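Notes from the 1:1 (GR / supervisor)

We went over the backlog. Supervisor wanted to see one worked example end to end before approving the batch request, so GR pasted a single chain during the call. The sequence is below; no edits were made to it. Supervisor asked that the structure be written out right there so they could see what the output format looks like.
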Amino acid sequence: IKKGVVAFHGSVERWRNPMMLNTKLSQKEMDEMRIGWDLVMDFDAIPLLDMDATKIIVKRVLEFLKSYGVETTSLKFSGNRGFHLMIPWESFPKKMHFTEETRKMYPELAQKIIDFIRFKIYDDLRDDLVKWKGSWSSLAEMLEGHPEEMSPYLFVDIENRWSSRHLFRLPYSINEKTGLVSVPLRLKDLKDFEKEDARPEKVRGVIPYPEIPESIEMAELIEDVDYHFRTVKEEKKKEEKKTPMIRGRIPEASFPPCIKNIMKGLNDGRKRSLFILVNFLRKANWSWEEIEKRIHEWNSKNNPPLKDNYINTQIKWFSRQNRSLLPPNCDNQHFYVDIGICTPDNICKSVKNPASYLLRKVRRPKRRRVKR
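Structure output shown during the call:
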């Protein structure tokens, strides 16, 4: 440090002989040289949120891992506002399907594991953040523009895409931007940890590397990851088949109850309802001119109404998108139920999205052929 060197980075991959690595090696040669890899999860939050937000996702992931019996982990502060959580290679099964060597499945398997975790904790993490901030609207105010979906990963996340030669800041290295130490932490100390604790003069002692696990702790989790992505692949093939299209402009008389309830005007949930309405009306094949006119008519019934400038800005934003977005699904508690507009009819029971309601409503029953 006295000579000006503060930042040190290491590879998550383990090599037979690191000195033999060079840029001319093929992927196959690299796979043969790799003896394993550690899974390092990088947690972070948007700049407007403090480190407490990152602690929420770290805690949620730790609980998820524990449900699979994965407890041999090590945690450290990133040196800024995030954390790194590491699962050692010794916790991984060495083969999948009896023949595929997991040491050769980097970075694909590592990224799939993180994608699976992100998918599984989605709802719980969203609820954690809402509980922390008091309401979803309090979180949404921190964002610019209108999000396509109310996702927790707009605020906190786990890095899940990186180059094949992934490096991470080594323990006790100093973050050159903040001057803080990337200090290892005991899991029990996460809750009370503050950035001040990472100032170089306050770092004392060394936290040892976790002991090698006695069992292959990641085996069950990786089985579920494999099954999940094979299932997703099969479902994707089914979705690629031709989907029924809604043809022609759908009149309001055919709208689902929740949309009709919004149209009556609201006291609460007006911004969320605007998000629902714009996307729904596009799916109903209304033109942007029709949408803008109807939205302003609807807004005049709200108490109090949204500002015209806000509505115009949101409609302009949506109209610039390259694709048509679906309104939130019916089971999204932060929209229909919380706003108080969910009064389902018989058709609602068989659909997952208000846009799907239109298909059921306008679909004509097939005529039965009469045998002669």
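Supervisor's comment: The mean pLDDT is 86.
Batch request approved.
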